[in-house]
Automatic annotation (TrEMBL):
PANTHER family: EPIMERASE-RELATED
Superkingdom: Bacteria
Name the UniProt record assigns to this protein: SDR family NAD(P)-dependent oxidoreductase
Organism: Qipengyuania aurantiaca
Keywords: NAD
């Protein structure tokens, strides 16, 4: 039986683990939903010895990568995957980025450094934009009253449905894809306002008022989100992985989530 080890069994990695178990894989993982304590070096080492494939979804901590710092020496000879962020590209004033675009110039400097370290380790690095899916989408923000429409003309973001991430990583494993970076994003970068408006339309409620960013009382993290503006190209993943997003735009993604309600 093929065995997979996941560092950090969170929202996205959890759905990936579910998919791989359905395909007959043995999956061990750290994290609150996992079966192994990250701090238990003996248990982690034993599971790593047995695993042929390793996926890391643990974000940087204190500016460094906790997985590479603690267990990097034990990852040799494994298929390696790393869930990174398109935030490594920084702000491009709305211009397109692909895997050849420079990294490290944005607010996600620690993420960019970890991204580079995993590339040097021989990983398939999956750079992800805003992730959404069941229980984690614009619908929850609208329902909780936390949805905003910010008056920033020309501001666009890319996003990806969680199940399209899973499909991309599965494709990379099945094709034994070359080491390197892959952007997994949908086909239609657009404003956050458009996403909120579509969610409200599907819910049959009025969208929140349009506000200046100063009026919205955003958290520092949210303000940082709006400080960057870029479009993420996914052509490499399509060519090399044979991957096509099941939800090519936010419209299909939101409609599918709403159908589950």
């Amino acid at each position: 039986m093929a065995r997979l080890f996941i560092f950090g069994l969170g929202y996205t990695a959890g759905r990936f683990a579910q998919e791989m178990r359905g395909r007959g894989w043995q999956v061990d993982a750290t994290g609150s939903a996992g079966n192994i304590d990250f701090a238990d070096a003996n248990a982690v080492s034993e599971a790593l010895v047995a695993a042929s494939h390793v996926l890391n979804s643990v974000p940087p901590s204190d500016g460094s990568d906790p997985v590479l710092d603690r267990y990097g020496a034990e990852l040799g000879g494994k298929w390696l995957g790393y869930l990174s962020s398109t935030g490594v590209y920084g702000d491009t004033a709305g211009a397109w980025v692909d895997e050849a675009s420079p990294t490290g110039g944005g607010r996600r400097s620690a993420r960019a450094e970890c991204d580079t370290r995993w590339l040097h380790k021989g990983a398939r690095v999956f750079r992800l934009p805003g992730i959404y899916g069941p229980t984690r989408s614009a619908f929850e923000r609208v329902e909780s009253g936390k949805a905003h429409r910010i008056d920033l003309p020309g501001q666009v973001f890319s996003r990806v449905h969680v199940d399209d991430i899973v499909a991309g990583v599965v494709a990379a494993i099945e094709r034994d894809a070359p080491e390197g970076a892959y952007n997994l994003s949908d086909d239609l970068p657009t404003s956050q306002n458009a996403v909120i408006e579509e969610a409200c339309r599907l819910m049959g409620v009025a969208p929140p008022p349009l506000q200046a960013i100063e009026e919205a009382n955003l958290s520092p993290m949210a303000r940082g989100f709006y400080a960057e503006n870029r479009r993420v190209a996914n052509g490499k993943a399509k060519r090399v992985l044979g991957w096509e997003p099941r939800y090519p735009t936010y419209r299909e993604g939101l409609a599918a989530i709403r159908a589950l309600a």
